[in-house]
């Protein structure tokens, strides 16, 4: 068989649309071609290029877990031309997907460990994949803690899943909103994510922490984790530099000599130390 | 490799046979005060007496704008039409300089890094390179400092070294080159045993690229980037004339229900190249972008793809509106 | 030249300015120079070969900083400074403008108003070669002219050196980068190139000061400066400005007045 055109997307049908928060939607996508669906495989942490035909492509992590077969999900905020174009699509319509690209969370190496997930705002989607992946293999891990914060109650995504995690006895979920973002009946924490992490104070003993959020949140969370005694090789994050091709050619996503699309998007804090922080 | 000789008349005969074969022939042509590669029909159209074409020949394999695929939407459904490799024509690139031919190696490394780029590879497969060794150079040329040279045959299918009487030494370097010779085999004569090196220009080696690579490994935070880039205007002239720059953008050309996805040239020097939708820009100032250009070519590419991202053609220096002379900058890095 | 170097060195040494923007010898012709120390000032030159429009750097935040900057200004640079000032892009307090008169004397301007009276004596002239092309173009039919520009602009590969070299193209996000909607197709192709260059000319209408930096910067030798030059000459009488002098009546693209004589917009 001749070489495939790596820029040609899979045709996907939007099976389900969930409105998560103002401007934020989750799409459940199914392959239109059965052979492609059968051959498709991915792992937690990988990303793809999603396209609205007529508008272009945008990069998001795959937000569903590889343990859930038959579909993939993506969650995005309506911001630019492509995400606005995607937002106009309805259930049943066709969009494009290229992927999976990039590396994965080393979830197999985390067996027998405690996991702490820390996410801010629209950065929960890239982590949702690995959260569900761990929860679906729950017996492989010890304590699972999720710290999730957003600007306001309204901005929290995956509200139905947050409820599910809240109710599960085997998950310690801590939600927080920025001061002023609470509603009268808000029962979670009030404060910025780094401060809440300090308050929750997870033990570094036999623990892996996965942080994902806006650069400013990450910048202030790392020192808190260091203070709590976490070593750099216990901390993981996923970077979201601007990309076009997703496959190491278009030249946008370098951070130093590393390419977020090929060497990442998942990096340990230890790896990040070797690349220039100003470039992500 | 086989060496032959071709006379001036033989060259004319061979060229016309190539054109007659139906292959498209691109060669340097002087027009509007510039010399650029253009499609030609006769050897007489080909420019003489110039140092370099303004633009490199990379557009033959990586066009300025190229359709990746096209699509049509109907009632929420989409039908796509893939890139068709059969539509790409056999092409001969005539009178390419060795520094341009050398540029195909880094381009191939980028476009085939794990994921194979079908479009690039199709163009490359259907391209035959007839290079001419260099008898002339200017003060922007530095091929010998980046592992090249005026008679370097890397990337060439056939290399000609012109002799004063109008004939040429012909080096047949690949099966593709051999096939091109076969189009007019009688036009070629036996090798006269002449040493081609005496017809080559002397391009002095001015820096040690290994030394530059070693220095760049720890130069990320050096003040040199700010110093060198103060006058840089942030345009894409250097990247667009470069034989190895391959940064691109993917854009949508849509009209109603029909559209095309297009790959087009982009440049790391542009201020919005790395801008995130959030407004955050990891390379917000020109010094960061200049550093990316140099490190990418002389440090990241050698590290990751085992190939230098520069062939010493000097085009960027010639094209720069504010004389960002890359050779001068590299020498100053080597001295730091 | 010695006087300029001495003065620049003194300004840097006593801290009057933190930076002097001028010219130095380059590879084959002069190029912009940024002097941060009195020692750097020794490299300054100033002669008729100095054609880069240095005013382009006066709107770059990363270069300008918070301290005072001196600039050695040729006539086109002076014109650019005035136009930038009309458009509220410069802080007069932070810029010391120095020129060298035709008599070879150093002249430091007390303020932008003084530049205006100085510049009034200099007529904007086209070079002989440019005049020749303009006359040739004016002699063509509309179709021939269109063909001329289609052919010239088909060479454009959208490196945007024209935009980067223009002191009046200071927008942080250019219309060509705007994608909602996509006003101009960003790739290089004959039609998409025309879209870009017509837009550039329109945005420069009544603002271009005729320095020709865009054309000088074009690596592909497209005479794009003629588009804005011609625009300037055609618009001058209509909008009440003299080519080469700052246009205080606003730019032609975005200015509307109740007493405009055209009534298509009413």
UniProtKB/TrEMBL annotation, chain A:
InterPro entries: Cbr1-like_FAD-bd_dom, Cyt_c3_hydrogenase_gsu, Dihydroorotate_DH_ele_sf, Dihydroorotate_DH_Fe-S-bd, FAD-bd_FR_type, FNR_nucleotide-bd, OxRdtase_FAD/NAD-bd, PyrK_electron_transfer. The keyword Magnesium does not apply. Keywords: 2Fe-2S, Electron transport, FAD, Flavoprotein, Iron, Iron-sulfur, Metal-binding, Transport. It holds the Pfam family FAD_binding_6. Its cofactor is [2Fe-2S] cluster. Residues 7-107 form the FAD-binding FR-type domain. PANTHER family: ANAEROBIC SULFITE REDUCTASE SUBUNIT B, DIHYDROOROTATE DEHYDROGENASE B (NAD(+)), ELECTRON TRANSFER SUBUNIT. This is Heterodisulfide reductase subunit F. The gene is hdrF.
UniProtKB/TrEMBL annotation, chain B:
The keyword Iron-sulfur applies. It comes from the Bacteria. PROSITE patterns: 4FE4S_FER_1 (PS00198), 4FE4S_FER_2 (PS51379). It holds the Pfam family Fer4_22. Signal peptide: none annotated. Keywords: Iron, Iron-sulfur, Metal-binding. Residues 221-253, 298-330 form the 4Fe-4S ferredoxin-type domain. InterPro entries: 4Fe4S_Fe-S-bd (IPR017896), 4Fe4S_Fe_S_CS (IPR017900), Helical_ferredxn (IPR009051). The keyword Iron applies. This is 4Fe-4S ferredoxin. It comes from Bacteroides sedimenti.
UniProtKB/TrEMBL annotation, chain C:
The keyword Iron applies. Signal peptide: none annotated. Pfam families: Fer4_8 (PF13183). The keyword DNA repair does not apply. It comes from the Bacteria. InterPro entries: 4Fe4S_Fe-S-bd (IPR017896), 4Fe4S_Fe_S_CS (IPR017900). Keywords: Iron, Iron-sulfur, Metal-binding. Residues 199-229 form the 4Fe-4S ferredoxin-type domain. Transmembrane segments: none annotated. This is 4Fe-4S ferredoxin. It comes from Bacteroides sedimenti.
């Amino acid at each position: 068989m001749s070489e495939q055109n790596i820029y040609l997307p899979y045709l996907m049908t939007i099976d389900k649309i969930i409105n998560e928060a103002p401007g934020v939607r989750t799409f459940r996508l199914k392959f239109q071609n059965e052979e492609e669906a059968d051959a498709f495989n991915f792992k937690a942490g990988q990303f793809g290029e999603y396209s609205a035909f007529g508008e272009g492509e945008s990069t998001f992590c795959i937000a569903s877990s590889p343990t859930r077969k038959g579909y993939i999900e993506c969650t995005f905020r309506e911001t630019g031309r492509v995400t606005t174009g995607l937002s106009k699509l309805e259930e049943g319509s066709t969009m494009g997907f290229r992927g999976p690209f990039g590396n994965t969370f080393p979830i197999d190496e985390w067996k027998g460990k405690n996991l702490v997930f820390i996410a801010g705002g629209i950065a929960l989607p890239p982590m949702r994949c690995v959260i569900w992946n761990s929860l679906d293999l729950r017996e492989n891990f010890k304590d699972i803690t999720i710290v999730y914060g957003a600007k306001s109650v309204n901005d929290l995504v995956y509200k139905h899943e947050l409820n599910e995690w809240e109710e599960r006895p085997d998950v310690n979920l801590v939600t927080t909103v920025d001061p002023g973002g609470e509603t009268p009946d808000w029962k979670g924490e009030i404060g910025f994510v780094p401060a809440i992490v300090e308050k929750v104070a997870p033990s570094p003993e036999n623990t892996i922490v996965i942080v994902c959020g806006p650069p400013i949140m990450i910048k202030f969370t790392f020192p808190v984790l260091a203070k709590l005694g976490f070593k750099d090789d216990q901390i993981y994050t996923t970077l979201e530099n601007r990309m076009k091709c997703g496959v190491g050619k278009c030249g946008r996503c370098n951070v130093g000599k590393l390419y977020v699309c090929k060497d990442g998007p998942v990096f340990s804090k230890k790896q990040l130390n070797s690349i220039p922080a100003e470039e992500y | 490799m086989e060496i032959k000789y071709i006379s001036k008349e033989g060259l004319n005969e061979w060229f016309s046979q190539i054109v007659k074969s139906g292959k498209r022939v691109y060669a340097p042509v002087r027009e509007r005060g510039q010399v650029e590669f253009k499609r030609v029909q006769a050897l007489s159209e080909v420019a003489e007496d110039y140092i370099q074409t303004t633009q490199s020949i990379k557009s033959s394999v990586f066009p300025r704008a190229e359709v990746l695929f096209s699509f049509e939407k109907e009632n929420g459904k989409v039908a796509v039409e893939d890139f068709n490799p059969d539509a790409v024509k056999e092409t001969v690139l005539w009178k390419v300089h060795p520094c341009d031919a050398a540029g195909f190696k880094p381009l191939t490394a980028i476009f085939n890094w794990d994921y194979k780029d079908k479009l690039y590879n199709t163009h490359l497969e259907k391209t035959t390179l007839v290079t001419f060794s260099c008898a002339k150079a200017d003060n922007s040329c530095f091929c010998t400092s980046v592992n090249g040279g005026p008679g370097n045959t890397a990337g060439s299918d056939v290399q000609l070294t012109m002799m004063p009487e109008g004939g040429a030494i012909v080096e047949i370097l690949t099966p593709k080159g051999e096939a091109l010779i076969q189009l007019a085999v009688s036009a070629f004569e036996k090798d006269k045993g002449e040493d081609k090196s005496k017809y080559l220009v002397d391009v002095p080696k001015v820096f040690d690229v290994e030394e530059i690579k070693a220095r760049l490994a720890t130069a990320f935070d050096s003040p040199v980037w700010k110093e060198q880039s103060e006058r840089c205007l942030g345009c894409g002239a250097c990247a667009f004339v470069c034989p190895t720059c391959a940064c691109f953008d993917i854009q949508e050309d849509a009209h109603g229900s029909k559209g095309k996805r297009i790959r087009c040239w982009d440049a790391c020097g542009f201020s919005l190249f790395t801008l995130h939708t959030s407004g955050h820009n990891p390379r917000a100032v020109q010094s960061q972008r200049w550093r990316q250009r140099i490190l990418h070519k002389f440090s990241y590419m050698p590290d990751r793809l085992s190939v230098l991202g520069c062939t010493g053609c000097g085009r960027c220096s010639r094209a720069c509106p504010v004389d960002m002379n890359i050779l001068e900058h590299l020498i100053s890095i080597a001295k730091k | 030249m010695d006087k300029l170097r001495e003065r620049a060195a003194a300004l840097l040494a006593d801290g009057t300015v933190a930076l002097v923007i001028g010219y130095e010898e380059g590879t084959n012709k002069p190029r912009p120079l940024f002097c941060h120390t009195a020692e750097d000032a020794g490299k300054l030159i100033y002669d008729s070969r100095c054609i880069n429009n240095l005013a382009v750097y006066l709107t770059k935040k990363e270069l300008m900083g918070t301290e005072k900057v001196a600039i050695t200004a040729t006539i086109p640079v002076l014109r650019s400074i005035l136009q930038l000032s009309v458009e509220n892009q410069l802080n007069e307090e932070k810029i010391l403008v120095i020129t060298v008169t035709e008599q070879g004397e150093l002249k430091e301007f007390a303020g932008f108003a003084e530049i205006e009276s100085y510049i009034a004596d200099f007529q904007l002239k086209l070079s002989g070669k440019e005049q020749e092309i303009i006359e040739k173009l004016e002699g063509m039919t509309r179709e021939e002219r269109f063909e001329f520009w289609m052919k010239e602009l088909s060479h454009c590969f959208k490196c945007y050196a024209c935009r980067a070299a223009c002191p009046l193209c200071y927008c942080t996000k250019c219309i060509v980068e705007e994608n909602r909607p996509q006003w101009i197709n960003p790739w290089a192709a004959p039609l998409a190139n025309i879209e870009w260059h017509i837009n550039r000319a329109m945005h420069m209408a009544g603002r271009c000061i005729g320095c020709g930096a865009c054309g000088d910067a074009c690596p592909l030798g497209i005479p794009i400066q003629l588009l804005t030059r011609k625009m300037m000459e055609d618009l001058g009488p209509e909008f009440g400005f003299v080519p080469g002098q700052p246009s205080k009546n606003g730019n032609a693209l975005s200015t509307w007045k109740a007493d405009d004589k055209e009534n298509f917009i009413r």
